[in-house]
Specification:
The complex is a heterodimer.
Chain A (H helix, E strand, L loop, with lengths): L3 H12 L4 E2 H8 L3 H18 L6 E12 L2 E10 H10 L2 E11 L7 H13 L10 E2 L10 H17 L13 H18 L4 H13 L9 H9 L5 H4 L19 H5 L7 H14 L6 H14 L2 H21 L3 H15 L4 H5 L7 E4 L5 E14 L5 E13 L4 H6 L8 H18 L1 H10 L2 H6 L1
Antiparallel strand pairs in A: 1-4, 2-3, 2-4, 6-7, 7-8
Helix pairs in contact in A: 1-3, 2-3, 2-5, 6-7, 6-8, 7-9, 7-12, 8-9, 12-13, 14-18
Chain B lengths: L1 H5 L17 E2 L5 E3 L16 H23 L5 E2 L9 E11 L6 H5 L20 E5 L4 E6 L11 E8 L4 E8 L17 E5 L11 H14 L6 H7 L2 E7 L11 H4 L11 H17 L4 E4 L29 E3 L4 E5 L2 E6 L2 H8 L6 H11 L29 E7 L3 E6 L5 E8 L1 H4 L1 E6 L4 E8 L5 H4 L7
Parallel strand pairs in B: 3-4, 6-8, 9-10, 10-11, 11-12, 14-15, 15-17
Antiparallel strand pairs in B: 2-13, 4-5, 4-7, 5-6, 7-8, 9-18, 13-14, 16-17, 18-19
Helix pairs in contact in B: 8-9
Classes of the chains: A alpha+beta, B alpha/beta.
């Protein structure tokens, strides 16, 4: 056993100014706890003998039997060095004494000791008892079972069905979430409209739940779901865009965007939509919006008849939507931007289709719930003719879970069914959700100049 | 005692590192859980609560009559209330009802003619003017005489010997409780095995500072064998099970204000219990990696309010449920560990009896409930419980060897014996967040020892308090 550890402890204590507890040392150096304790003692001893001037303070752990209120009790205490002898003398039997920690500064209270141990344990949760003196035979963690994953499938499915985002709102400052949402919407549309097998979607979900960035070039549905859930969509275009669902947590989206622009022409509307979505996600910063739009345009041109069918379907849907929306002021104004754009041969009309705010849960390691939702916000950009256009579109916004409970309640309302029926439902929900975000909507309404265009 | 066990070897840790550290095997006990009676499946609250009392009396009547004949002779007359004759000495069996003036009554509160403000919560609701009434299946009669009124609570089933007088009041000469039920004899064990009982960890915002969290960390380290010298570690390897008896979260995590506040104020806030449960999960994962743990819900934990509390849901503990050693159990909890029957609650039943009787010591209340053969006599009167109708699961049918209740203000333990030779260890487990004390029960000898964890803080310089902690 070489004495390298002495230098290590020296480094930790003096250079990094850390509080070195036996547990932290044991986990850091990967040694048995008793050895760690002995190492600490050795180091302390050596330093004291050297008396090189650097003051070291230590805390000890004392445990033993004490008489308390007429009965015996076992006491375990962490004490400072100066209290050690005192505490020892009060014990009838001393069971164990060892060094608990070494640090440069004098500790007034034991809070920092706890935080050091807490950090050490937090990093090593899986093997926190690896170096302890007791081994328990029955305590082996089970591998994560499929049953637990299957619970994830259930909530995903209704979400899929609900979110019918056919159109990518190019201008939305989409984080990955936005893209994922819309991809989900696309998936939903895909399931209903083209009535491709639900099995494929399920199979796709299963793949998603396999939880690895499996870049399987499976069927397109599979592809889509991979994108949909934000898994790396390498199979799509050979690009390794790291859109993992977990990256919902990350706000920084823009990275993968531009490669997605180079998409192979797909023969299915979904692919197109997903590309659009990816383009949408690429517009996270909003700067790339034009590029995205032009990309979309390109892509749309590349699309074959299926896409047109899809678009016509979308247009049909839009038409269905409009009468429903006309009842509310918000929707009228929001609709009007859609109307003129419908004529324009740009993909931007798709962006005007209302999508219900899609809520996704973002769970980070602290267990907080931050969700993203889509709200209508005005967006100003220069379009291809060199004209400044302000239009309203859905943008992703982060908010926390207690907000807008009723939105969440609406999610279960949606069930797989006729696409139109669901679309209508979605419209109604959109309406109500719009009412919920009336403030934002109204603000956008006031700022918009689209009224001008409508008159024309 | 644990300390004696642990001190066998000499201290080895105040020296330079030597050989590889020792590795002790955790003892594995035989474990059988008997909590099916406390599981509530399909819950329907459409029933009246009166059925519990009916079935309680029905189940206890036979036992009490046998006990009465045993105490007062086989020739004692046992009468129903409807057959009572004035002046005739007889024995009647029924459920007690204590009529308390100060008992909060919702009818009084909402009644407009009284114009009462809601009563503030009190420590005790007893007063001098209370009355004891005995009820059987059909009638009720007031009791007076040789009966200690302040000590009894509503819902206890007893037998009284006496006579009815002219006023229609029954004058009590003596009373008898059901006393301890039958007990299975304990199998003799060859070696010492320990079960650690702890309760009231009180995790969560405001519940415990870093100091008290350090004590909890010391507990976890000691049990998992990281703390202490070899002797202590080998002693800790004999701890075969850990029982956490409720109140794992602190009271402050139950923030009811968020319901009343406006949405825009509470938009970004998160319930206090979310962070606390995460902390609990991290503590548990360290424990379950090394020892089987039973977790009971308590008054402030995210479980249902009515007794019997159902186990906490496993989805709250993503890290710990990976280990098969974690057991989420009901409150009350009953299990056979190495042939020793453990029965206990998280303390709600005991605290409720303390509120409505003159008894203060949790240990005395424990004894009283055991002798009454009922875990929670005040349920459903003042303690919330599920409307059972077929049988009352709180009746103690088999005498436990260790009977505990959690979240007591201080540690107390006692050994009692029953009329038929039963031998029971009563333990009132103290609240860890305030006392930093846990209990270690030796299942071989049925002895209990408290373990106190302490750390240092600025005000300890002069004190050096060796007893219960800071």
């Amino acid at each position: 056993m070489d004495d390298l550890y002495l230098e290590n402890i020296d480094e930790f204590v003096n250079d990094h100014n850390k509080i070195v507890t036996y547990k932290w040392l044991s986990l850091t150096l990967g040694v048995h706890v008793n050895q760690a304790k002995q190492m600490l003692f050795h180091y302390l001893d050596q330093k004291r003998k050297e008396s090189s001037g650097s003051q070291l303070h230590a805390t000890y752990l004392v445990s033993g039997k004490v008489a308390a209120n007429g009965s015996m009790s076992h006491k375990v205490a962490v004490v400072r060095e100066d209290q050690l002898e005192d505490v020892k003398s009060k014990m009838d039997i001393t069971v164990s004494i060892h060094v608990y920690s070494i640090q440069k500064a004098v500790l007034k209270d034991s809070g920092p000791l706890y935080s050091t141990d807490y950090d050490a344990v937090k990093e090593n949760l899986k093997n926190c008892c690896k170096y302890s003196a007791i081994r328990c035979a029955g305590a082996d963690p089970l591998p994560s079972d499929v049953p637990r994953q299957s619970q994830e499938i259930a909530p995903v499915a209704p979400l899929e069905m609900e979110a019918k985002k056919s159109v990518v709102n190019g201008g939305t400052a989409a984080a990955n979430k936005g893209a994922a949402k819309q991809q989900k919407g696309i998936m939903g549309m895909f399931n209903k409209s083209t009535s491709k097998t639900p099995e494929s979607s399920k199979e796709v979900k299963m793949e998603e739940n396999e939880d690895t960035a499996t870049e399987t070039t499976k069927s397109k549905p599979a592809l889509k779901v991979h994108n949909f859930f934000g898994k790396p969509a390498t199979s799509k275009a050979g690009t390794s865009s790291e859109k993992s669902r977990k990256t919902i947590k990350e706000e920084a989206v823009g990275s993968q965007t531009s490669h997605l622009a180079v998409e192979e022409p797909s023969t299915s509307p979904l692919t197109a939509e997903i590309k659009e979505e990816e383009a949408k996600s690429s517009n996270a910063a909003g700067k790339k919006h034009n590029e995205g739009k032009s990309n979309k345009m390109k892509r749309l041109e590349q699309c074959d008849s299926d896409d047109e069918k899809f678009e016509s379907r979308k247009k049909k849907r839009r038409r269905i939507k409009k009468p429903q929306l006309s009842s509310s002021d918000d929707e009228v104004i929001a609709d009007s931007p859609a109307a003129p754009d419908a004529e324009a041969p740009t993909p931007s009309p798709e962006s005007k289709v209302k999508e219900e705010p899609f809520i996704q849960t973002k769970v980070n390691s602290e267990g907080k719930r931050r969700k993203r939702r889509r709200v209508i916000k005005p967006r100003t950009f220069v379009d291809e003719d060199g004209c400044m256009v302000t239009e309203k579109g859905f943008e992703s916004e982060s908010y926390s879970e207690s907000d807008d409970d009723f939105k969440v309640n609406k999610q279960p309302l949606k069930e797989p069914g006729a696409s139109k029926a669901i679309f209508r439902k979605n419209e109604e929900e959109n309406k109500s959700q719009k009412r919920a975000t009336a403030a934002a909507g109204k603000a956008a309404k006031q700022a918009s100049i689209m009224g001008f265009f409508v008159k024309k | 005692m644990f300390s004696d066990l642990a001190v066998r070897k000499e201290g080895t840790l105040l020296c330079p590192p030597g050989s590889e550290g020792p590795l002790f095997e955790r003892v594995r006990p035989d474990y059988a859980s008997c909590t099916e009676r406390f599981r509530v499946g399909e819950r329907s609250f459409n029933r009246q609560y009166a059925h519990i009392y009916a079935t309680r009396l029905m189940q206890m009547r036979g036992i009490l009559i046998a006990r009465a004949k045993q105490t007062w002779g086989a020739g004692v007359l046992v009468r129903r209330l409807c057959d009572l004759k004035v002046g005739e000495q007889c024995c009647i069996v029924g459920t007690l009802f204590k009529n308390m003036e100060l008992q909060p009554s919702i009818l009084k509160e909402i009644s407009e003619e009284h114009n009462l403000l809601p009563q503030p919560p009190r420590a005790k609701y007893i007063s001098q003017s209370d009355e004891l009434i005995l009820e059987d299946e059909l009638q009720r009669i007031k009791l007076e005489g040789n009966i200690d009124m302040p000590e009894f609570v509503t819902g206890s089933v007893i037998a009284v010997l006496g006579a009815e007088n002219n006023d229609g009041i029954f004058t009590v000469e003596a009373f008898s409780m059901a006393d301890l039920p039958q007990q299975h004899p304990r199998l003799p064990l060859t070696s010492d095995r320990f079960v650690l009982l702890a309760s009231g960890l009180g995790l969560g915002l405001g519940g415990s500072g870093a100091d008290s969290l350090l004590s909890l960390q010391l507990l976890v380290d000691m049990v998992s064998g990281q703390l202490g010298d070899q002797g202590e570690q080998s002693g800790a390897a004999r701890i075969c099970r850990v029982l956490l008896a409720g109140n794992l979260l602190s009271h402050s995590t139950q923030d009811r204000d968020s319901v009343n506040k406006a949405k825009y104020l509470t938009k970004k806030t998160q319930a206090g219990s979310v962070e606390a449960i995460r902390l609990l999960d991290e503590v548990l994962v360290q424990l379950v990696a090394s020892v089987p743990v039973d977790v009971m819900p308590g008054q402030f934990d995210p479980s249902n309010y009515t007794l019997p509390q159902q186990p906490l849901h496993r989805c709250m503990f993503p890290l710990s449920t990976a280990y098969p050693t974690l057991q989420l159990v009901t409150n009350p909890y009953q299990a056979d560990i190495d042939g020793v029957r453990f029965l206990g609650t998280s303390g709600q039943n005991v605290k409720d009896v303390v509120k409505y009787s003159s008894m203060d010591s949790h240990l005395d209340v424990l004894e009283r409930t055991l002798r009454l053969r009922h875990l929670a006599p005040t349920a459903p009167d003042t303690l919330g419980c599920y409307p059972f109708y077929q049988s009352d699961p709180f009746i103690i049918e088999e005498c436990p060897h260790v009977y505990f209740s959690g979240n007591a203000p201080s540690y107390q333990a006692k050994r009692i014996t029953g009329l038929d030779g039963q031998d029971v260890l009563l333990v009132s487990v103290p609240e860890f967040s305030s006392t930093h004390t846990a209990c270690l029960v030796n299942v071989r000898t049925l002895e209990c020892e408290p373990i106190v964890f302490s750390s240092f803080s600025p005000e300890d310089e002069e004190e050096n308090d060796m007893n219960v902690s800071h």
